Amino acid sequence: MTNPDNPQKENNPTNPAATEADGVGALPHGRPLQTDFNDGRDYPRLGSFSFRRGKLTDNQEAVWEKNWPQLGKVLSAELIDIDEWFGRSAPNGTIVEIGSGTGTSTAAMAPLEQDTNVVAVELYKAGHAKLLGSVVREGISNVRLIRGDGVEVLQRMFAPQSLTGVRIYFPDPWPKARHHKRRIIQSGTLHLIAERLMPGGILHVATDHADYAEWIDELVEVEPQLEYLGWPEDQSEIPVLTDRQIITKFEGKGLDKNHVIKEYLWRKK
Ligand SMILES: C[S@@+](CC[C@H](N)C(=O)[O-])C[C@H]1O[C@@H](n2cnc3c(N)ncnc32)[C@H](O)[C@@H]1O
């Protein structure tokens, strides 16, 4: 049965409350925060996702328990004081990466963008546990983590014009037509991202999925506050790092299948 107020509940037989132990970094019990944007734009409907994926090792659990309280937050209605969280006012501002997965590129890029704060947003605890492990092991000081739906995180936890960049690398392609409404790149998400970027801020999206690329191609001009830049050969004018440094887990899977990687950049006007 469809529950229009709570599509996640409808699609998600694995209630997180039933599968995750309470503790630091656990998603809250009950109905997840879901904004009714009601502005005529399209917003993704959160699809089903399993909270069982990947079990943390004892070492990862220990690292999580010790470090999450300082370095992580769970989606909430808290508007983040970015300077306080990072303990500085970063010269190059703050980038939010939505769907960081295991955070391989996040950790690889961070040392090259020391003057930038990077906030990795992911639903998947085991993915964030890997990134947290890298952050702690490698002494990375400019990365923080948020657990929750990236759309709600942007909507509730970041102020308008507070970001210099947003990254979405290899978002879930939801290949079946009846699942396209779950794709994160939609007119509403592009609008919300534009609202959160400061003028000159950059949105960078990459996909290896040909059908998703066609879907994005249709949307590149839909948000009037974003100037579509394509993927310029000369990126010296782009004020944020666009080189992932390392092939991400999902990029590698696509390349193994000979998929073509397509990259997109937009600039907030
Ligand atoms: C295909 S994977 C790509 C992961 C990583 N960027 C990479 O390239 O290896 C997509 C990731 O986005 C996460 N994800 C999906 N929907 C999300 C949402 N609404 N908010 C935050 N993360 C999301 C998934 O849990 C998954 O880890």
Description:
With 269 residues, the chain is of the alpha/beta class. It has a single domain (58-268), classed as Vaccinia Virus protein VP39 (Rossmann fold), CATH 3.40.50. The protein contains 10 helices and 8 strands. The protein has helices at 7-11, 16-19, 58-71, 82-86, 104-109, 125-137, 150-157, 187-196, 210-219, 249-256, and strands at 72-74, 94-98, 117-122, 143-147, 163-169, 197-207, 226-230, 262-268. It has an 8-stranded mixed sheet with strand order 1-4-3-2-5-6-8-7, with helices on both faces. β2 (94-98), α5 and β3 form a beta-alpha-beta unit. α3 (58-71) packs across α6 (125-137). The radius of gyration is 18 Å and the shape is globular. It starts with 6 loop residues before the first helix and ends with a strand. The model is unreliable at 1-19 (pLDDT under 50). The structure holds S-adenosylmethionine. S-adenosylmethionine binds next to β3, α7 and α10. S-adenosylmethionine binds at residues 98-101, 121-124, 127, 149-151, 169-172, 184, 248-251. Substrate binds at residues 176, 208, 248-251. S-adenosyl-L-methionine binds at residues 97, 122, 149, 172.
